[in-house]
Amino acid sequence: MSETRAGITRQGTGPRSIVNESRLRVRYAETDQMGVVYHANHFIWFEVGRVELLRQLGFSYKEMEQQDNCFIAVVEARCRYKAPAAYDDEIIVRTWLKNIRESVIHFGYELVRVGDGELLAEGETTHIVADAQMRKTVLPEKYLKVFREAAGR
Prior knowledge:
By secondary structure, this protein is of the alpha+beta class.
C-alpha cells in the first residue's frame, strides 16, 4: 500500500455511527501466483482501517498502551471474500465500531474497489481489552465514552 488517506463520514450500523475510510493501493508484493491479492492481506488492511479510525477519534493504540496500560487484543477475526483485487487497484477500507462493552470491542470492515465501487470483502474483528500482561480488564472511561459515541450508542 503506497498511501493512506482517512476521513470520517456518518453512516454505518448505528443511526449516528462513524465510518473511517482509508485509501490504499495494492502493491505487487501483496498479490499471489494467481495475480490477485493474497487472502491474508485483507486482515492487514483491516488493521490499517482500525488504526486510522482510532486516530480520527483522537487517540492512538500507542497512546492507549503507553499512557493507560490498555491493549486491544484480537481474539477473533473473520473475512467474507466477495471479489478479487489485483495489483494497482485502489481500495477503500471502511471501518466502524459495531459493538462496545466494557471489556470487548467489535469492529466492522468493508473493502471496496475505487474504480467500480465493487464490494471486495466484508469483515469483523473482536477484541478484548487487556493490560500489558494480557489480563482482561475494562476500557478506561475516556475511551469507552468516545467509542460508544462513534458507534452511535
